[in-house]
Structure formats: structure tokens, C-alpha cells
Amino acid sequence: MAKEEQDKILDEVTQSDYKYGFVTDIENDDIGRGLSEDVIRMISAKKNEPEFMLEFRLKAYRHWLTMKMPEWAYLKIPEINYQDIIYYSAPKQKAKLESMDDVDPEIRATFDKLGIPLDEQKLLSNVAVDVVMDSSSVKTTFKQALAEKGVIFCSFSDAVQEHPDLIQKYMGTVVPIQDNFFASLNSAVFSDGSFVYIPKGVRCPMELSTYFRINAENTGQFERTLIVCEDDSYVSYLEGCTAPMRDENQLHAAIVEIIVKDNAEVKYSTVQNWYPGNKEGLGGIYNFVTKRGICEGKNAKLMWAQVETGSAVTWKYPSTILKGDGSSSEFYSVAVTNNHQQADTGSKMIHIGNNTKSTIISKGISAGKSSNSYRGLVKVTKNCEGARNFSQCDSLLLGDKCGAHTFPYLEIGNKSAKVEHEATTSKIGEDQIFYCNQRGISTEDAIGLIVNGYAKEVINKMPMEFAVEAQKLLAISLEGSVG
Amino acid sequence: MLSIKNLHVSIDGKEILKGINLEIKPGEVHAIMGPNGAGKSTLASVLAGRDLYEVTEGEIIFQGKNLLDMAPEDRAKEGIFLGFQYPIEIPGVSTVNFMKTAVNEHRKHKGLDPLTASDFLKLMRDKKALVEIDSKLTNRSVNEGFSGGEKKKNEIFQMAMLEPKLAVLDETDSGLDIDALRIVANGVNKLKTAENSTIVITHYQRLLDYIIPDVVHVLFDGRIVKTAGKELALELEEKGYDWIKEENGK
């Protein structure tokens, strides 16, 4: 393929539009810009929180003040003015929602546009949805049906009110408040999120799903997800994220904590499609997320599956602490960067229990002038016998202006560990494109075929509805790009 | 069917084809033979629309249309099929998915609805049987990890699926053992009709024992220097290419 043709096609990619970039015109209740102890007290008071929550927040805030933003990631981020962000903004609602009819029609319209039906009758069978707009949860569906099984699935705020004992027991146990800069910030100011509790021996009868949406301007989104799976239980949880197109960068710093007990299993899937900024790299979401789970019990299982196509900057390392003997964890990721997007993402697997197993499959796809890094840690502690890890990090490049990097870290403290690491870098070849062309397949469709083929291993791990969405997203994100 | 007039083609400023003239009628099988570097594969690539090559002069008319104005995928959908000398591997893309996309693109071009999954699988079964290709191959990613012979069989299978009007088989016999050669040649023969045409590009005469050409051309130094019936192939086999070279003053 001629150079100009390649450039033309690459340009086309850069121009593919972000279709979730609309703004919903609703009245917001915000507290103005800036961060201080007073602001934190105000957030806590607005949410009518018990004393332990305020203490947790203040402790985190005081610790955060002593910290600096981490600089080790392979990312170029302009300085963030933390006093210029609104830390709490919620759609104004009159009273507590009793039924669907009480949801603001504008909000309902927003989620309709996103393809997330809030209407329970219209819902895909077996997916319960919690939606979080800006700082607060708008609506959780199927609460009743789940409650019959003893499953708790609600917004984090509701959980604080209704199940304070569970929140107090588990919050901050996997990601402590002093864990890292963004985790401390989140712990101080987080406003909502989702809470899931699966009692002993229960297989959650449906997929649980949370959709996060940043709507208001100058607002940071700080949500927290806490999932607790008691012995012998199972849940599959999905999260999706979108935001409007805006010229300024917006901050998203979330925490996910997952606790998996004896013989329990959690699948956590993410389709992250925050606004990535325009093709000159203006605007977009800064996505700084701490996701961590602990396989606390024996034979506990935790699987992460993610398709990341959005955000101007992504800083995210879903991790698992394999504490229980025989516990296992898998991490499957496809991260796409285009235009000026930057991603430094990967996973950490900490082997503590005996005979623990982990798998990391990471597929990076870079196009435009983007930078895509894999950073992963496999750690085997001194007393951990028989640990096994397999890591595979593949990079696919489209064009010659993007970069892919791999930073694997291994800390092996026990001789019995078996650790394997494989890495490949490939380009979509002109030969492959021409071969498809010669069979009557257009260049765009050919790239769609090849990219989806490349990412298949990961997409296959996602629940079906999500897999379909993920495939479309990959095609849209990379429409037409060749190298 | 196909009419090539005074075709000149260069790559990186170096002229490879120096005025090719060729007429192919429906139902004909033409063999193009010649020594290494004569320009045989260049001709095949130019017909398929590979843009590494620059056409500096001449025209190619395919079924009344100017082929050189068309994108490679449009040429394919109009009925040109290139059997690659070195078929390309596409990891992760299943042969089923690949062929389904291709077949439905061809159907769309003809104004037909896409095939249903079951009709498509039936079509695949029929064509697999026709060209004697193993399901083990079609269940894998396109050409990934195939041996040379398997790749060539897969080309013929794809040709069967797409039913081209003009098939250009570029050194399809290279790297084939005698059994694979027979299977590939049988496939080509079974797909032959009174309407479609085939260009067989080959080095050796042995493929032409199985695929009987109507016309044999000798391509040498970017020009067709000799055209005759199938007996020309035998003559070449016997005498080699040296006498051609001598006749043409090289």
C-alpha cells in the first residue's frame, strides 16, 4: 500500500467520532470547586453518612496531603490542579426513587441513548443494572429479585445506610487508604458506586452491571465498588463507562475492591469507553483506577476481563492477591489507544498461598500517535510453594507513529515457582490487507476482522452481550487504520 | 473477457513489464511460462491491483470495464481471483469467518442477500468436497501454520467458494508434491466452465499435464515472446529456456 494511502486511511481513523459525546441538560447539585476538610465534611453530610465514614475520609485526606502524584508510569500528564475540580455533583432529584417513573426523564433519555434500558421489562434477561451519573447512583434494577436470593446489589451510598456493618468490615481492606495517591484521593472524596454482597453458597442468578457516566462539567468522578463473595458463591459483574466530549480534561479516580472467600468465584468485566479526547489530543478523561481483589479463601477464583478503548490517559492495573491455598486468578485485557491517547496498564499477581495459579493475557493495539504500555508484576512470596504464572503480552501496531512498550516485573521468592512470560509485537501487514482485498473484503472490514481475531482470546472471556459490544467498539475505535 | 494492451509496469522506477498484449476469451485456459524474473508474478499482481507497481502505459479491459480504475476489492467482486504464490497467514481470523465475509461481500455486489449461516455452511461443505480439502484446515485460522501444499489447496478452496470469472493462478504448483499437485489441478478442472477463464502461471510443464491449456505464452524480459498451442509447453520442458533467450538476443 502506498504511503499516501496509508496516511489517508490513518487519518480516517483519527476522525472516527465518539458517539457518546453528548451532554444531558439536567439540574445538578454541586458543591463548587476545590478540596479541603470542609468539603469532605460537606460530602459526608450531604450523604448523611455515619461517623465511621467521615473518619475514613478524613484519615485518607490527611494522608493524601502528604503524597505526590506518582511519576513512574510511561505517561506524559500535565500537572493537575486538584483545587480546580468539583468533587461532588449529583443530578437533583426530589425525593428518593420509588419506581422507574420517578427517574428524571432527561436521565432516562441519556441512558436510552447509551443503550442502557432502565426499564425492567425491556431489560435483557438476567442483567441487573446500577447506573451512576456523576457522583451518585441513579437507579438500580432488579433489586427485589436479587434480594430474594439474599444478594445485595445497590449503590454504595445505599449500602452505607442500609448495611453499614458490611461496609465498615470490608471497605479499605483490599485497597487501604494509604495505598497510592489516587486511592487516597478517592477514599477521601468518593461519592458513590456499587456494592455487591453474595451470601454463602449462592450463585448470583443474573449478571450484575454498573454503568458509569460523567456528565457535569469540571467534575471529577470518584466511585468505589466493593464486591464481597462469601464461601461457595459466584457472581459475574460488568461495568461500562462513557462521558461527554469536552475540551478540558476530566479526572476519574476509582477504586474497586473484591473479596473472594473459600471456593467462591468472581468474574469482573469492564468495557471502558470514557471520552478519549479529540484527534489533536484535546480533552478526554484521565482515568486513574485502583482495582484489586483478594482471593482470601482456598480455591477462590477471580477473573478480570477488560476492553479499554477510551480515556486520554489510562493508569490501571487490576490486581489479585492470591492468599488462599489453591486460589487462582486470570487477567484478560485488550487496550486500544489511538490519536494521542496514552495507556499504562497491566496487572499484578501476588502469590502468597500454596499452589496458587495466575494467568495474564494482555493485548495492546496502538494506532495514531498513541502510546500503549503494558506494566505487570508477578510476585511469589518466600513461603509460597508451587506457584504458577503464565503471562503473555502482545502488541499490535497500526501505522508507524505509535508506540508499544512492555514492562514486566518478576519478584520470585520461592524456588518452586514456575513463571513464564511471552511477548510479541506485530503489525497489521499490507500483505494481509491485500489478501483480504483480493477476496473482496474492503480495507476497513479487513482491519475489523484482523483486530477482532487478535483480541478474540480476551473477548471470548466476556459475557455475551458485552462481547458483542466490545467487538463493535474495537471496530469503531480503529476504523480503517493500517500499517 | 480480458484484453491487455501495451502494458508497461515499473517498480521503483525499474521497468518490469515492457508492453504486454494479451487477449483471453471466455472458457479459455492460458498458460504463462517463462524463466525467473521474466515478470510473470508482476503481471498477476497488477491484474489483482497490488499498488506496489506503477502502470506507466497501456490498458487492461476486463468485461468491458477499465480494470486499472478499480480498487482491488472491486476487481475481486467483479470476478478476478488471484491464487497467491505465497498465501498470507492471518492469525486469529477463522477461515469460516473470513470466507463468510468474502462470500457475502460478493453477494452484496451482485445485489443478493447475505447467506444464512446454515446455507453458508452447506456451501462450504459442498466446495470442500469438490476440492478435497480437509475440514481440519478450514476449521483453523486463515493459512496459519499451514504447510506450503495446504496453503495452495486452501487457495483452490477459496476459488471454489468465490466462483470467479477469471482465475489467475500464480505458481500454484510450486512446493507441491505429486499428490497435492493432482488435487489442486483436479480442483481447477472441476471449476472450469464454458464461461470462466483461467490464467495458469508456471515454471514447469508438469502442471500442464493436469491442466490442459488452450494457449501457451512465453514471457521473457517483460514481453510475451512466443505464443502457441499446448505443444509449446512440451518443447520448453525439453529444451529449457535457453533457446528463447538466444532467440531474443540475451
Structure at a glance:
The complex is a heterodimer of chains A (483) and B (250). Chain A has one domain (26-428).
Any overview of this molecule?
The complex is a heterodimer of chains A (483) and B (250). Chain A is of the alpha/beta class and 483 residues long. Chain A has one domain. Chain A is 24% helix and 35% strand. In chain A, the strands form three sheets. A ten-stranded mixed sheet of chain A has the order 4-3-7-9-11-13-16-19-21-23, with helices on one face. In chain A, a hairpin with a 2-residue loop joins β3 and β4 (136-140). The radius of gyration of chain A is 22 Å and the shape is globular. With 250 residues, chain B is of the alpha/beta class. Chain B has a single domain (2-247), classed as Rossmann fold, CATH 3.40.50. Chain B has helices spanning 40-48, 72-78, 95-109, 117-131, 135-138, 148-162, 178-191, 231-239, 242-247, and strands at 2-11, 14-24, 29-33, 54-62, 65-66, 80-83, 90-94, 141-142, 166-170, 197-202, 215-220, 223-228. Chain B has a six-stranded mixed sheet, with helices on both faces. In chain B, strands 2-1-4-5 form a four-stranded antiparallel sheet, covered by helices on one side. A two-stranded antiparallel sheet of chain B has the order 7-8. In chain B, β11 (215-220) and β12 form a beta hairpin. In chain B, α4 packs across α6 and α6 (148-162) runs parallel beside α7 (178-191). Chain B is globular and about 60 Å long. The model of chain B has no long low-confidence stretch (mean pLDDT 90). The interface between A and B is medium-sized, with 24 and 31 residues. Chain A: InterPro entries: Fe-S_cluster_assembly_SufBD (IPR055346), SUF_FeS_clus_asmbl_SufB (IPR010231), SUF_FeS_clus_asmbl_SufBD_core (IPR000825), SUF_FeS_clus_asmbl_SufBD_sf (IPR037284), SufBD_N (IPR045595). Chain A: This is Fe-S cluster assembly protein SufB. Chain A: Residues 212-453 form the SUF system FeS cluster assembly SufBD core domain. Chain A: It comes from Labilibaculum manganireducens. Chain A: Belongs to the iron-sulfur cluster assembly SufBD family.
